[in-house]
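The data layer described in this paper is built around a simple, fixed record for each protein. Such a record has a labelled line for the sequence and another for the backbone structure tokens. For reference, a complete record is included directly beneath this paragraph.
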Amino acid sequence: MKDATKALHIGYDKDNQKSMQVPIYMTTAYEYNNTDHAAKLFALEEEGNIYTRIGNPTTRVFEKRIAALENGIDALATASGMGAIFYSIANLVNSGDNIIISNKLYGGSITLSTQTLKQFGISAKYFDPANPKKLESLIDENTKAILFESIANPALTVPEFDEIVKIANTYGIITICDNTIATPYGVKPIDLGVDIVVHSASKYIVGNSSAIAGCIIEAPFAKEKLKTNRYPQFNEPDESYHGLIYNEKFDNPFISRARLALLRDYGAVLSPFNAWLLILGLETLHLRIKAHSENALKIAKFLLQHPNVKNVNYPFLENNENYKRAKKYLKFGSGIISFELDSYEKAKEFVSKLQIFSLVTNIADSKSLVTHPASTTHQQLSKEELINAGVPEGLVRLSIGLEDIEDLIEDLKRAL
């Protein structure tokens, strides 16, 4: 079954009403047949619905579909993209451990990894995803994860997947790839050897800024790494489930533990209504991501020729430093462009003159958006950290929508 067909059919067997659209099970709880039935559900001896904090029938359809699109074995939906990032890391680490993160990473992922997790005794080290030769030297016995993005936000760096995965596999370390910008149609990280894929589903998956959501997808081969002494929580009894051992009971131990322990205890659960919106979004994602990418490439070429633009970042521009890796790994470049103006003030002035583009700290809407990262999404970073993250003060990020390309170029020309 091809991807576009999977996105429309996987995970839903029509209910008794023969509803063509997946029903919204807007419920917090479910009735048990009797106390024995309830006991078996809570003891994980029988599959079924317990409480929507753990799982919901509508949400489950979305989870099955996104897992199928990413060629994973299972998925977990979360209340936000940052929830997905946090759960993916928290599922692997204990106090005293460390993770290695891309130095070209979304600002929220950087602060989570370097600041918030520090309060729990977790430290973070940086590596260059485009040139990961030094990655190996950062690994020690307490390293539990390597986190990077398939297309970095907003630097748009494309990683050297093969080398990162090779090094991680040598040391038995779980790789986590944020595939938000590329989407499963741009690249399938699991096919390239990545263990865990995450998304901010608030972006291209829903496609119209109507829902906050995230998801985590587990590769079929992740279990082999989780069997080692590096990850004792998957191989030792979980006393909260009467001594259950995740690697013994489940073929999908990563998602099972994230659902049964982390989602249960931290509770960042996705609303069933938002899950339904994501299902609708998946139905047209294959059409939208192609249109976003086509528009973006035309605009990137326009910006490249404009005298007031210092440089343009788009992976599929032939003069771009990411071009070879983009051609090697990506099918689409997606709709995100970043470009640099002379200064912080010039960037602010440009943004203020746009008429079609909306100033919004979001990406991947059907409508075109603009962000000045240094004053918004990355404002918590110092000047040095901004440069290291590939976000100089004059950088502007565009999320190219589905409007007529001539209208978008005219709006940019006027503002420049």
In short: The longest helix spans residues 272-304. The two ends are 46 Å apart (CA to CA). The CA atoms of residues 79 and 270 lie 4 Å apart. The chain has two domains: 3-273, 286-415.
